[in-house]
Request: fold
Amino acid sequence: MPKVVIALNTAWNLVNFRSGLIRALVDSGYEVVAVAPPDEYASRLAALGCRFVPLPMDNKGTHPGRDLLLLWRFYQVLRRERPGVYLGYTVKPNIYGSLASHALGIPVINNIAGLGAVFIKDSWLTRLVRGLYRLALSRSAKVFFQNDDDRQMFVSGGLVGQAVTDRLPGSGIDLDKFAPVILPSQSPTRFLLIARMLWDKGVGEFVEAAGLLKRRGTNADFCLLGFLDVQNPAAISRKQMDLWVQEGVVLYLGVSDDVRAMIAAADCVVLPSYREGTPRTLLEAAAMGRPIITTDAVGCRDVVDDGMNGYLCRPRDADDLADKMERMAAMSLAERAAMGLRGREKVEREFDEKIVIGKYIDAIALVIERQKSALAVRQLSD
Reply:
């Protein structure tokens, strides 16, 4: 039975974003080993049919000693497991897991799901990460991107060869799990932002826009859902969130293992992010028939046909965001429902999880077949 190792920066990420792929691989006859730092979600992986291997990881640190230790840990795990293919996601598994795999002669398939805060600014850290990506992707069998902007940036920057790249429609959406739900006939209008609480997600602009609309007398609630105090230089502190809530600007809803109930209670889902791969929260919202508002930025704009299933606003522009939210709040229930329906249709056409899974199954099968052919040639030459 061919073995596949899939590595991410959290077990939470594996459970929430890669469950469909893991199940499909197991159903296709692969032995799947999931590698990530242990957390409270790790125990759920067994139900997907895979085996979990804990691997400690300093996700946001830049200490060279700790990163070398991570490279060594990946090397040890991969040398012991000897998979037929390694699937890397998120920055450190993509870089250090790939480097360890290359050293062991294990084929690699990468997924560049979004470049994150480090690529938004030009700094020594950006240059370092680019250099590490160039090295890590130099021998990969396939490198998937979630939008063409990131793909072209890597290709034009010499970080990866065009021939091995392909585009995926985000991480894909389970259209049965995220099914359309009738819009609530409620007042006030409820706007919901779902994300890790980071400045780079546009949380500050959302709060500022909420304040503007409250001063204009717009009858609306402005809700935030997602992790606080995450390990990230752009993290929003609990103290800051408490201040916003005390001022009566926004409602903080905490975190949720299942966002469907939160989306169902919302009239519109908003993500004013500065840059994304393809934002899954917007895909989930659109799949459930919710109109969305997001920025005309890399990754975000791919999910919205402006004026059809939502609105695009200018990045880092709270005034423009407020105008788009005010326009949404002024709509009738029927108009918002029509927008939501067009969003559902768009997700069905372009972002079905089956598209993502199909591309992975094909890519893995091709890699395994190449290995078998290479082994046969070596045996004949011997």
